[in-house]
Design goal:
338 residues; alpha/beta; Quinone Oxidoreductase, Chain A, domain 1; Rossmann fold; 7-stranded mixed beta sheet; 6-stranded parallel beta sheet; 10 helices; 30% helix
């Protein structure tokens, strides 16, 4: 089957950073679904896994952790899906990725595709929806039923993939007052359209900008880009006994002592934790994606597709990786069909 993979970990401008390959078609066993991949989207995790290092792979390594497609085979222990079901999911970082014609994935981390979306628009959602949902509702403990309505959340990286769905979850479900960061006119427009109540520039004086809109401190902070740069501001702006959650690994030690006087909480969110460790509650991601699909079909949430880059091939994937590394992407970058 066709796939896009790598043998060496190279800068994205190198012609062999990602290459078109042929690999064997896998077979479904256990609780696995075999999915015919119709569309994929690209995330910062793809670029981080592909980042230059000395390792050389004997067989092509396939990346890609966001897909939408059709179930074409099921393992003997599958109970949640049947042949022909359209699905969407993010997969597991410990297994081969979805940048291939056919892909194996555990049914417990798969959702039925929103009926109102085509595969292209559906592929934009899984990884970022799981990440934002878990960060907001599981890590920070915000109520998705609106029990904390009126509280404030500051979202760093509002125009990115996770920020784009995070704004919607915070606004539409939690009923929070959303302040999102964006530094360009087009990204500021994007986050306002998604429901942000206020937009601030993360390159400016955030404290002064918040005071201009009548906010001194916020109840929650979500860091969806550059933890090292944004953590000091987050610690300054979170209220006493408030909470911060980040999804981006730090490059240097974080000054967590800044949180002590405020008794503020700090959380990590990594959406691959459940699949990586095979936690007993893996099926929560199936339930989560099922609810996201319902909310999309009800018109409560919208797709976060920012750009369709064409067919699934090495050239287009290199282009997607380059855009993410340059920080120019708004919303999600999606590729459709081999």
């Amino acid at each position: 089957m066709k796939a896009v993979g790598l043998y060496r970990y190279l800068p994205i401008d190198h012609a062999e950073a990602l290459v078109d390959v042929e690999i064997a078609k896998p077979e479904a066993t256990g609780r696995d679904l075999l999915v015919k991949v119709e569309a994929i989207s690209v995330n910062p995790v793809d670029t981080k896994v592909r980042a230059p290092k000395d390792t050389v792979e004997n067989a092509p390594r396939v990346l890609g952790w966001d897909a939408a497609g059709t179930v074409v085979a099921v393992g003997p222990d599958v109970s949640l899906f049947k042949l022909g079901d359209p699905v969407f999911y993010a997969g597991s970082i410990t297994r081969p990725g979805a940048n291939s014609e056919f892909h194996l994935v555990d049914e417990r981390i798969v959702g039925h595709k929103p009926a109102s979306l085509d595969f292209t628009h559906a592929a934009a959602l899984p990884l970022t929806a799981i990440t934002a949902w878990e960060a907001l509702f599981d890590r920070l403990g915000v109520s998705p039923q609106g029990a904390h309505a009126g509280r404030t959340v500051l979202i760093f990286g509002g125009a990115g993939g996770v920020g784009s769905i995070g704004i919607q979850l915070a606004r539409q479900l939690a009923k929070l007052k959303v302040i999102a960061t964006a530094s360009r006119p087009e990204s500021a427009k994007w986050v306002r359209e998604l429901g942000a109540d206020h937009v601030v520039d993360h390159f400016g004086d955030l404290s002064a900008q918040l005071k201009e809109i009548g906010i001194d401190q916020v109840d929650y902070v979500l860091i969806f880009n550059d933890t090292d740069r944004n953590f000091p501001a987050a610690a300054q702006l979170v209220r006493p006994q408030g909470s911060i959650c980040t999804i981006v690994e730090n490059g240097a030690p974080l000054p967590v002592e800044l949180l002590k006087a405020k008794s503020a909480a700090f959380h990590w969110e990594f959406m691959f934790t459940r699949s990586m460790f095979g936690t007993p509650d893996m099926i929560e991601q199936h339930k989560l994606l099922t609810e996201v699909a319902r909310l999309v079909d009800a018109g409560t949430l919208r797709t976060t597709l920012g750009q369709d880059l064409g067919g699934i091939n090495a050239e287009n994937l290199r282009r997607a990786h380059r855009q993410l590394e340059e920080g120019r992407a708004i919303g999600k970058l999606v590729l459709t069909g081999f």
